[in-house]
Amino acid sequence: MEGITAAYLVAGDRPALIETGARTSAPALRAALAEAGLAPGDLAWLVLTHVHLDHCGGTGIVAAAFPRATVVVHPRGARHLAEPRRLVAASAAVYGARWSLYGGLDRTAPDRIVAAEEGHRVPVGPGRDLVLLETTGHARHHMSVYDKATGTVFAGDAAGARLAGGGLYPTMPPPDVDLDAAERSVARLAALAPERLLLPHFGPVPEPATDLALAAEQLGRLRAAAASGPDREPLRRALEEELPLEATVAKPEAVARWRRLRWAEANVDGLAGWLERR
Ligand SMILES: [Zn+2]
What we know:
By secondary structure, the chain is an alpha/beta fold. Helix content is 42%, strand content 15%. It starts with 7 loop residues before the first strand and ends with a helix.
């Protein structure tokens, strides 16, 4: 499938790749990096916003192809990259029949991985660092990446997704969604007033401030729907009423992708889990 997961290459003395997409995207990613002129020794950093397989699945393959690259990830994600068995098994259970879209995760040697805390800096060139900002909510270990020099935020899934040029819609999948944290994270990104907001699903947004305001509003609607409680069927109906997928995403091509990926359905399970844990 095209246009689902984006990776971003930050050029510089020490180039950084942000996200890999799923393992199934690794061949396309490697071809694009070769086309961008990156030799195997050139990539310095691979920065991951979180270790869901549609963001990190290509990590083992990219780390092997670029032997000088250091993988940067939240401390809660680091162990899963070094020993992916549990993460892969849990993900297979969540994705079910859609597993073939994702394709797993190859192990990365622990000495290639840096566990990055809030505020961790990744130097890409003179006077230019990428800063990791904890933006939890979509996941407990979620980070966004801030390139202050260019006013660019690589949001990860903190602000939702826009597929196939359709409208923004939140992604709140299992297993560890936290709506309170998600609202704080969107506010944090909005306070940066980024000039560029780059989504992994999929691409730059036209108006960062507008989309971040919309993301905050949409989380408010999820909160309203969550008042129906953790039982799946009433919650699903409340979500569809508060934030109808088709009307919100608007474009038929985008709706078709949401349906195929079953991400809106995953939101029901994610939010139900959050309500049960509270
Ligand atoms: Zn995710």
